[in-house]
Structures are given as C-alpha cells and as structure tokens.
Amino acid sequence: MKLAVLGCGEVGRLVARAAAGRFEVALCDTFPSAAAALAAELGAPWHPEVGDWLGGVDRVWACVTGDTALAAASAAAARMRPGAVYVDLTTASPDDKRDAAETAAGFGVGYVDAAIMGTVALTGIRTPLLLAGSDAASVAEEFAAVGAPARAMVGTAGDAIALKLLRTVITKGVEALAVEAFVAAERRGVRAELRRILADIDEQGFSPFLDAVVRTHVVHAERRMHEVDRAVAQLEDDGLPATVLRGVHGRFEQTVLALRHLPPEPGTSDDVDRAIAWLHGVLPAPAGTAGH
After folding, report:
1. Is the pTM of this model over 0.90?
2. How far apart are CA 194 and CA 135, in angstroms?
3. Which contiguous run of DSSP H or E holds residue 191?
C-alpha cells in the first residue's frame, strides 16, 4: 500500500516511522527541516506541499494541526484518485470533519475520522485510536498492522472526534485542577502527602470513581459546594489563583438550585444512569442552544 503522511510533527513522525517497515511511505510538510530529516531517516520521498503526486497513493494519514485540517483535506482530496482513503488524525472540530468528508466524497475519495484517545508522548504507537466513517474497519486493520490499536465505531465522520472532545472535558479538566492543586501543595510543602491521600482513587479505579461522584452528586452537591468554597479560600489565602476551582463552584451551584426546585426521586443516587438522567433534565443549557 502506498501511504502519504501529511504533517511531520510529533504524531506524523510517530506514524511514519511505524508505517515505514510495512507500507511505501511518502512525506509532506511545509517545513523542510521537519520533513527532510525524517525522509532521510526513513529513505522516503518528501514533498513541500500537496500536489498531483497524491494521485499515486492509496491512503493519506493527515497529521496537520486542527485549524488547518479542513483546508488540507480539501486540497488533498482534489488530487487523490477515486477509491483512495483520507484518514484525518487531526483535532479538527466535528463540523470540520463532516465538511471534509463531504468534500472528499465529491471526489470519490473515502474519509475516516480518526481520533487519538490518549497521549502519544506516553504510549507512542500503542496509543488507542477511535475511527468513524464508511472505511473505518479496513483502516483499523491497517493501523493494527503497524502496531496501533484502532477501533472502528458505528457512526459517521465527526463522531469519533466528538467523543474525544467529551473525553477532553475530563482529561483537560483534571489536568487544570491538578495544576492548581499541585502548585498549591508545593507552596505548602505537602505535595508528596497530597499524592498519598489520592491513593484511594488508584485503588478503586478512575472510572468507578467518576461513577461514584456523579451518582452521589445529586444528593451531596450543596455540602460539596461549601467544601469547594473553603478550598478556593485556601488557595487565595496562599496567594494562588483558583481559576478552575471557581468554575467548579459554578457547576455545583447549578445543581444546588436544581435540587431546590426539582429534587430527584428517592434512590436516584443509587444508580449512575438515574442520576445522569436527572441531571440531564434539570441543568440549564447555555444561552442560544435551545433545541440542540
């Protein structure tokens, strides 16, 4: 199989190296320093821009930045042969990926939305991929051939990245809170102790922990909101910002107001599905999203 890798950043270098021993690889990057060194390492040709040379490839794995992804997909699809497949590994928005898939289809080119579900700096080529699109199953096999665990989901282009962005709500939210907490702990000289008292989460597992706090949120939101208030005060007393934590207070406050006006039925906190159903029904939507 002839494969073109667009973008020679961290992800592009990773997949190109993995694919080089299995497929016939060509590289494309507008920055010569990024592509030339990798091309020399792999013995692969490289191009400074998309062009008619893409008509000779079977697959494109796009690893460009999310803000350039739609333009890159449109330019590439116009030069690819009908039946070839464009695999979009970028962090473009769901709408951009849907638009890119529609554009590709107009040229008879397949399109697969590929979302990276992890941190390649930690797990390398073994970082899981979630794929959506009509060619997702065959593309999953091709990734498996280079050692990348990929799963084809039931859905269309845009669905995989939408799930990644939901994952981002958790992972980047935790990241931001960890920054606030660890810096505050460092200032007090207790960072090692903070890690020790988080051990219970390691013991029960992160997913069960999430289920437990969401499930019991519907009955303990007010008490927990006051605890958040005290944590905000402690950070600010130490001269540190509580930027994210103040947002956490806002989320708890919304639940507290809902509890006062439309309390859940008894037993709701015993089941995470019932708790989420109640929260879904009572928490306000952002202005301008009615009907979405």
Report:
1. no
2. 47
3. helix 191-196
